[in-house]
What we know:
Blueprint: E1 4-5, E2 9-13, H1 19-26, H2 42-50, E3 62-70, E4 76-84, E5 91-98, H3 107-122, E6 127-132, H4 137-145, E7 149-160, E8 163-173, H5 174-180
Parallel strand pairs: 5-6
Antiparallel strand pairs: 1-2, 2-3, 3-4, 4-5, 6-8, 7-8
Amino acid sequence: MRTIRTERLRLVPVTVRNAGQLWALMQQPDLRTYQDLPKAGLKAFGEMVAARPRRLVPGVNGRFEWIVRMAGSRDALGWISLRIAEREAGAGEIGYSILREHRRRGVATEAVRALLAEAFEVAKLSRVQAFCVPENLASLRLLDRLNFHSDGVMPHGATVGGRPVDVLIHRLERSRWLQSGKTIEMPASAYPA
């Protein structure tokens, strides 16, 4: 995986070396309002990260995560993820969490837009899904801004705070992404030499 750069952000791949930083972010209590994050200890989380694929290429399956930072800073604002499952060729699922003090500044939109470009242009996925609880209005607005469309409801599709909750399914096809003009222009420095 590579570091993804946008105008304001740097998305740093999660590896064994920085897994502890992501684990610490996941311990923030306000991030559990709309999602159920893993309760694994630091050592177990590091082992999970070590078992993940290291390169995002067409046809690979697994979970990929990036820590979101402002360009030029080492402080984490949150993280984004892309999960590609074996059972659905060409499909992926995105996730994102931004710490409360960095919300409402367009950080999540910019990070997710960059992740979508990575999913469609690097991994060559044909579609990406996002799952969201109905109460998470900010996330629903983000998905709408990025041209996702509603794909139904999954009753009791997740567990949040120890209780089952319904989940709204959203979907974005590669063709719709390309037609929407929501792709991002990546500076030449973003690509490996």
